[in-house]
Amino acid sequence: MMIIDIPSGPLNVAVIRSRRRTSQISIGQDGQVVFRAPAALTDERIERFIRQKTAWIERVRNKMLSRSVIRALPEYKDGGVFFLLGEQRRLCIQKGTLAWPRFEPTLSGWDLFVPTDWDEETVSLQAKRSLELWYRREAETYFPYRLAFWSARMAIVMPTLTLRVQQRLWGSCNSRRHAVNLNRKLIAFPVDVIDYVVIHELCHLRFADHSARFWKEVMVWCPLFRQHREWLKKDALRYVSPL
What we know:
The structure is a single chain. The chain is an alpha/beta fold and 243 residues long. It is 38% helix and 26% strand. The protein folds into 2 domains: 2-67, no CATH class; 81-238, Zincin-like (2-Layer Sandwich). A 4-stranded mixed sheet has the order 1-2-4-3, covered by helices on one side. Strands 5-6-8-7 form a 4-stranded mixed sheet, covered by helices on one side. A 3-stranded mixed sheet has the order 9-11-10, covered by helices on one side.
C-alpha cells in the first residue's frame, strides 16, 4: 500500500506489481485506488504517474462513492425490520410453552411463537425459514397479478412468468419465447417501482434493445421511469427482505 498526498488529502493506493508491460489505474466501487504496474517500475515513477492523474482520480472516486449504497442486512430477531411492497414491517418473537413453532402474519408484521428452551441461534434460523417461505408465497401471488394487469392494459398477450432470486438483474425478457423473468426480491419494493420493472420487461416484448423507440414506449406507460430507475440504483439495497 502506498500513501500519496493529493489536494483532497492522503490517498491510499494499492500497488500490484506483476510481469505486465503497461501500467493501469482502476478505482473500485468503494473508492479504493489500485495501481497495476510492471515489476521493475519504481515507487517514485508510480507516485509521479498518479500525481499526473490526480484530477481524474478524484473525479472518478467521488462519482463511485456517491453511488455506493450500504446494503442493509436482515436481522432475524425480535424487532427485526423488513419491507413488503415498500412498507416497513417488524418481526415479533415470543417464547412460550409450545411443542412446535408457530408463525402468524399480523397487520404490522409477523409473530413467531417458539418454545421457551430454544436458544438464539435456533430462533434466528426458524425466523429466517418462516420469513423466506412467506415472502416467496407473496411474490408468487403478487407478481402474476401485476403482470396480468399491465399485459391487459398494454394490449400484450400475457407472457410466461418465471420468478428467481438474482443478485444483478431485477428482471429480464425473452421475446422469442414470449417470457418474462422477475426477481423475487422486488416484493420488498414500492408498488410503483415494481410496476416500472414489469412495464420495462413487457416493452422488451416489442423492442428487444434499449433504443429510443423502446424508451419512448416505456415513457407512455410509466412517465416517471427515470425516477424509478434512479431509486433502484440508490435505494434498493436499503429495503431489507429475507430473499
